[in-house]
Amino acid sequence: MSAAPADADAPIVPVRDGVFFTLPAALPRGRHNLGREQVMAAQRERLLVAVTELLAARGYAGFGPTDVAKRAGVSLAAFYDAFANKDECVFAGYDRFIQVLLTQLTAADLKGRDRRSIVADALGQYLGSLQNDLVVARAYQVEIDGLGPAARRRRRKSIRLFAEYIRGLVQSASGNRQPLLSVTAYMGVVYAVRQLTADALDESGEPDLTALSADLEPWLTDLFREH
Description:
By secondary structure, the chain is mainly alpha-helical. It has nine helices and no strands. α1 crosses α6 and α4 runs parallel beside α7 (149-174).
């Protein structure tokens, strides 16, 4: 799906602190005891937040490094100390998004569950995480497509990671009693769920992504049933 250009005049909505990104405290003015690494880490996090908010509100073509630095409250030189260009900054934000989703999914402790429980809990965890920060979800489920082939390569890699993890859970639940679907088949499932959430985000400013569970859970449970 190719994302439509976002409204350049749309209000920039802030991300929710502590979900995918953590807003650092304001750096003290004047002389301070913070080391260079601490300062750079705080500036990098602010830049990741800023680029995510701008991407969600304006789309990829609607802003540049100067806008990111201004939104983050850092100098343009600080931007280029952290990232080589806008694309690198956007992809760093996307990588954080995927890392947090995978971490939350693996922390749900789904090993040893039956298949119905795995489907319900994994789907609920995924949709709930996106619902917790719709700004981040919109940036990296919809507007990220504006980066073209490089974004698609990253998406394929992340979807394979999700597919391999879920396939492993299903294998554990089946006790190796039957042949598993291929990783490609599981990737198809992850693609379908991702696309439905992207469509919901594209069609509404305030979608209820968790409501998708009612339609998706029976289908996925049946797909992963034991034969």
